[in-house]
Specification:
alpha/beta, Aconitase, domain 3, 6 domains, seven-stranded mixed β-barrel, five-stranded parallel beta sheet, 31 helices, RNA binding, RNA-binding, metal-binding, EC 4.2.1.3, 4 iron, 4 sulfur cluster binding
Amino acid sequence: MSSVDSFKSKTTLTVGDKTYTYYDLKAAEANGLKGISALPASLKVLLENLLRNEDGLNVDKDDIQAIANWIVNKGSVEHEISFRPARVLMQDFTGVPAVVDLAAMRDAMVKLGADPAKINPLSPVDLVIDHSVMVDYFGKPESFKANVDREYERNIERYNFLRWGSSAFNNFRVVPPGTGICHQVNLEYLAQTVWTNVADGGEVAYPDTVVGTDSHTTMINGLAVLGWGVGGIEAEAAMLGQPIPMLIPEVIGFRLTGKLPEGATATDLVLTVTQMLRKKGVVGKFVEYYGDGLETLTLEDQATIANMAPEYGATCGFFPVSQATINYLAETGRAPERVALVETYAKAQGLWLDASVEPVFTDTLELDLAGVLPSLAGPKRPQDRVLLSNAKTEFNAALANDFGKASKEDERTTVEGSDFSVGNGDVVIAAITSCTNTSNPSVLIAAGLVARKARALGLTVKPWVKTSLAPGSQVVTDYLNSAGLSEDLDALGFNLVGYGCTTCIGNSGPLPEAISAAITAGDLVAASVLSGNRNFEGRVNQDVRANYLASPPLVVAYALAGSLRIDLSTEPLGNGSNGEPVYLKDIWPTNEEVTTLQRQHVTNTMFKGRYSDVFKGDEHWQAIQISGGQTYQWDPNSTYVANPPYFDGMTMTPDKVTDIVEARVLGIFGDSITTDHISPAGNIKTSGPAGKYLSAHDVPVSEFNSYGARRGNHEVMMRGTFANIRIRNKITPEIEGGVTKHFPSGEVMSIYDASMRYQTEGRNLIIFAGKEYGTGSSRDWAAKGTKLLGVRAVIAESFERIHRSNLVGMGVLPLQFKVEGWSKLGLTGEEIVTIRGLENVQPRQELIVEMFRASDGKVARFPVRCRIDTPTELEYYKNGGVMPYVLRNLARGVVSAEETVAEPAE
């Protein structure tokens, strides 16, 4: 808590019979921070964070004043502040490597002669295991049990490790598999909107804030909790007591008016918002929603919009505290005392929504909810919205323009052993999945009603469609069962397959072999329709090239239609049992039907029951034996969990940063290269470097599992970096996939093999890229893999926020073209690159890149901007990354392991 209090804001607040200490924004305004009542609510949360943590070192008076000055400059003046989130949220794909790093740091502390117990979370950490379940089994009542059993078979090494971590580290809790998606568990249970902890003999109340190792941590912004996704690297620093350095952001106000029309869903709304904000350009900015339209949205609608902040490029998508917040907290079983505190605190601090008042924003845009129409997004990006009425036409255009097929190519391929065939645009995966929608009862109940009406009319799902239902929490099953809708969904093949991200994260599981073979044989552009938030190339399934995001009821509708080449707005989905055509309008529920069932069947009792013992787990989890002490006993034969090399040979004093001299180019990439392209994800190819590594370690192909499940083993992950089947390296433009040329030999090989060869030759490596490099999930392995492949710098036209930060966090230098990108340089990959002046480099400094062309002997020079943005990031870079920086400070005793820990509210 603040030891300085320059603006005399520390005071008390009484709620019921309890008194809390808090840092009063209104008092701070009266004591010198003029005008702060006009700040956006999201910046008020940041301001309170600074007031509460003012110590004259990490936070001083000038930092606090800089937030007040924002009223005048609206974010146009760069000023670094130190943000201390109340807690950290993890999922297992990104959480396992973070815990691996913590375990490795304990080993390193021992080698440095320091106390390994200093490596311990100082902020509350919750890890939810939700990314590992795959849809191996579907369409049957036993699918859920079979998938859970298979999940434990595949992942028992990882789960043993996490069970050790939950006992070895203080302030670290694990929510076991089969509970739900981390963001929905956060929304329904973990988050409190106002957090409390005991300090200096009293209880302090302050806004709940969080950073998470998944970019969709922003979903919690819908509950007025400020939070966003960070890489596992930043999350580890936050856990270990390091503030998160950030520039005071611009805040874009998004005014909502009106009310959603009949037939439009929250999914249609969020796809519209995503398209608008991506067009506006909000990368690295806060978005805050306001206006009287908020009063017509449910809290779950707000969470749906906040969830997709990464897709529209913003750091967060924040909703202020409102009556919807209070109602939701009560309806989901939060303690009445907590609910009362949230309302009283928000009103006292000026954090309560007042639709009649417009805060000061950097810029604004507006949407009338009445204009929202049924929509999808695809076939490759979440911001590429298409109206349902145009979906058929748009797909045919994409077939020609994006996939190189004639728009009327109607050839079909017979599926062996069946009486049907598949063709371009056929929907082979229809998945109700992902945190975006499964938190929202309105769209799940709507999906159930579509299934009920379709079933009553005798419609069935096409036989080539793989159907699945993966709710975000067990509560979803409770209310679907209560409403009788599970029976209807089951009848159409949308049986429960697991509680987790499944299809949205790439865990769609394999297609039936005969269908997969037909797609390959016909070179077909097969499609998926999923209620997710991500549809990047190669993510959902390697057999599926066109992927569309849609609401859960539309997922069911497309499963019935079986193709994107049917216009659902005018053409029949099929014929009913009476032989008559059935149209979408015949089975689409009214808003009133959905609302009535939601009121009747989504109850407070369900939430209380499901979360009463959330950390206990099922019989599989309880059967895992915990072993080990302060340090982990690494199994040298494990292909899941391995001690990473980040701290090998580390000393207390970092080596000086050296110039990049005569570096080779490992890859040249175009625009919108995502972390899905960079980071290992999805299935592991037998023929790739990672597959060969596993085969060499006697792992059968059937047990390869996924890259996500093996994120705790750097040997697998570095071999899968830049290995995406859809990535295109301009050095080898004729080949799709993770390959490059080694120079000067000119040999074509995998990027991993080229990296190893260059490193053996003592060569530094660099990468060139286009715009929006690193968009997508906050995958730390996109940066870790880059580091382990020997890349010293990435030169891009622009960077996604989290990936740029992660590169710095791993000691990789991000550089941004100042004038024009690599396409004007005539690159071939044989160039030799030198970048000097790095020993004394400063944040955002201009540097000159020298590029020698072997073909003509000429040297080209061009300016770049160093995208180390803050002094703190510079310290990370000089130390070789944030983990060595934190480790050295802990070993020196700069950070105390005895600092007060914030306890989660009960």
